[in-house]
Design a protein that fits this description.
This protein has 376 residues and is of the alpha/beta class. 36% of the residues lie in helices and 16% in strands. The chain is built from 15 helices and 15 strands. An eight-stranded mixed beta sheet has the order 3-2-1-4-5-6-14-15, with helices on both faces. A seven-stranded mixed beta sheet has the order 9-8-7-10-11-13-12, with helices on both faces. Helix 7 links the parallel strand 7 and strand 8.
Length: 376
């Protein structure tokens, strides 16, 4: 199979879909890999590394989109990239379609087979291709909070840990999934006073086992949320509904109850955000203020640490890339229900019920659509 790896063009996105080591693995299995010149430079992999791994270099993305059977990326295709997709081509990347009607429509119109990392499942449960970036984003969220609580960055002038005579930062984490646990763990390690709210008793029990007695855990209720918001110096939004919009946990009216200059870090912004006042920002321009509250809503947080992120992501995605290439896309999706759960749009039809419901579109069961792959 001819596998294509374009350079990422989202603002300040430095990750790459396949590392040189992943390319070498696929080439050894008899596949050809076409990599755009400079695609890996942001994470420290030069063109020579890809040539040594057995890749062929392409001068531009148009060559890759025009020739490759399977496109492996990191972030959702941008508008200019979506115009290059063609019917029957397979796209394997993060998509985050719930808040993005334009992308949904254009993927449908292209006829592409679009498989989203974030909805692939695992036999033991969970989202194995979302997990590595959730770990990175959660850990980064605490670092971000520490930075933007500083006064020169617009924050209240609070240090995570406190010397004698001062109080540590009060950090509220909303959601006890992978992002929330990692954010809480790092914030605790930095010396903050951390509270974690979640609607699931089971998730809170897991947090208690993993994080110990130093963290304050409580079921998320209107009273608990109001109390913790009023006390917080920083709030990390980490709630997720797989494949659907993130729940809106904090309304604009609630901002008035918070400390002036407090910080909201919305890690769920790719899925629409946890806060009513959230909108996506970039690493270049990461924050804005609403009603005196600082908002950090960067939609590709792990892109700031691309070497760590690219290797962690490839560790998780490579077995699925192998399956798609070795077996062929139709057979791989047909055999593996967990990979098939990642199929969001296929040959002009929406194959995830959450996406169809969110955008008022007809849902098609994946197994009904798979027969059309390769039939044209």
């Amino acid at each position: 199979m001819l596998i294509g790896v374009p350079g990422e063009i989202k603002t300040e996105e430095y990750r790459v879909g396949l590392t040189p080591e992943s390319v070498a693995d696929l080439v050894a299995r008899g596949h050809a890999v076409l990599v755009q010149r400079g695609a890996g430079e942001g994470m420290g992999a030069g063109d020579a590394d890809y040539l040594h791994a057995g890749a062929t270099l392409a001068a531009d993305a148009a060559d890759i989109f025009g020739r490759a059977e399977l496109i492996v990326k990191v972030k959702e295709p941008q508008a200019i990239e979506r115009r290059s997709l063609r019917r029957g081509q397979t796209l394997f990347t993060y998509l985050h379609l719930a808040p993005d009607p334009d992308q949904v429509r254009e993927l449908i119109d292209s006829g592409v087979v679009a498989i989203a990392y974030e909805t692939v499942t695992a036999p033991e449960g969970g989202l194995p291709l979302l997990a590595p970036m959730s770990i990175v984003a959660g850990r980064m969220a605490a670092q971000v909070a520490a930075r933007f609580m500083e006064r020169p960055q617009g924050g209240r002038g609070i240090l995570m840990s406190a010397p004698p005579g001062a109080q540590p930062a009060r950090v509220l984490v909303l959601g006890a999934g992978t992002v929330g646990l990692n954010a809480a763990r790092i914030a605790l390690g930095m010396g903050a006073r951390v509270s974690l709210l979640d609607r699931s008793e089971a998730a809170l029990d897991r947090a208690r086992r993993e994080l110990g007695a130093a963290i304050a855990l409580e079921v998320n209720s209107p009273g608990a949320l109001a109390r913790e918001l009023a006390a917080a110096d920083a709030v990390i939004g980490a709630a997720l509904v797989p494949g659907a919009l993130a729940p809106r946990l904090v309304t604009r009216a609630m901002l008035k109850t918070m400390k002036p200059g407090a910080l909201l870090v919305d890690v769920a912004i790719d899925q629409g955000g946890c806060f009513e006042t959230s909108h996506p920002t970039t690493h270049r321009d990461p924050v804005y203020v609403v009603d005196g509250i600082l908002h950090y809503c960067v939609a590709n947080m792990p892109g700031a640490v691309p070497r760590t992120s690219a290797y962690a992501l490839n560790h998780a995605t490579l077995p699925f890339v192998r399956a798609l290439a070795d077996l062929g896309v139709r057979a791989a999706l047909g055999r593996d229900p967990h990979l098939r759960a990642g199929l969001n749009v296929c040959l002009g039809r929406v194959t995830r019920p959450e996406i169809a419901a969110q955008h008022g579109l007809e849902y098609a069961a994946p197994l009904e659509v798979l027969a059309g792959i390769g039939a044209d």
